């Protein structure tokens, strides 16, 4: 009899995982999914109205110097093309800057999600976990800041870190290329 009870509890726990997953999925369908769809529609509308050539011109301009190459360009790439297509904006940077651009773009996947969840919906679980904790604190009257302030701070710190990482990766790429005798 004990074996039967153990198996029954195991079966309930097993199906409980899927029930919890289903509830989470329904929460996404009624919560974040409509937001993502509207954001994607808005971004594609902006690209359509502004014109793809103008977006490309802006990207070429942003690729021109170290400050914008590792902050503005990855931000534009993630915002307009989303992950993983954002990495194609690497076509606007010189060959020697491509590793550092990729490093900056991939590092922006998390920080951009708080303000622009359409940019990298695959990473929403991280942001939603943080947001849930801040929301609980806010409900209890203990939140030190709003979710919007946190999302903005997260993005700004992410852009600063991207700049540092881009510069360091560029420097490392130059050292390795020199050591290996590769002309870049």
UniProtKB/TrEMBL annotation:
Keywords: Membrane, Transmembrane, Transmembrane helix. One of its GO terms (cellular component) is membrane. The keyword Repressor does not apply. The chain crosses the membrane at residues 25-51, 72-93, 151-168. It comes from the Bacteria. InterPro entries: PTS_IID_sorb. PROSITE patterns: PTS_EIIC_TYPE_5. One of its GO terms (biological process) is phosphoenolpyruvate-dependent sugar phosphotransferase system. Pfam families: EII-GUT. This is PTS system, glucitol/sorbitol-specific, IIC subunit. It comes from Verminephrobacter eiseniae (strain EF01-2).
């Amino acid at each position: 009899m004990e074996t039967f009870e153990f198996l029954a509890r195991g079966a309930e726990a097993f199906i409980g995982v899927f029930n919890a997953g289903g509830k989470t999925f329904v929460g996404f369908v009624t919560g974040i999914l409509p937001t993502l769809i509207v954001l994607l529609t808005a971004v594609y509308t902006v690209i359509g109205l502004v014109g793809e050539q103008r977006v490309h011109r802006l990207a070429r301009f942003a690729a021109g110097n170290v400050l914008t190459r590792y902050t503005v360009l990855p931000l534009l790439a993630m915002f307009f093309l989303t992950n993983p297509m954002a990495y194609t904006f690497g076509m606007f940077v010189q060959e020697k800057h491509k590793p550092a651009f990729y490093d900056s773009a991939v590092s922006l996947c998390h920080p951009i999600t708080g303000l622009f969840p359409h940019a990298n919906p695959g990473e929403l679980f991280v942001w939603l976990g943080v947001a849930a904790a801040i929301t609980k604190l806010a409900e209890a009257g203990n939140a030190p800041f709003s979710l919007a302030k946190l999302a903005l701070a997260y993005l700004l710190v992410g852009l600063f870190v991207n700049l540092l990482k881009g510069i360091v990766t560029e420097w490392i790429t130059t050292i390795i290329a020199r050591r290996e005798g590769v002309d870049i």
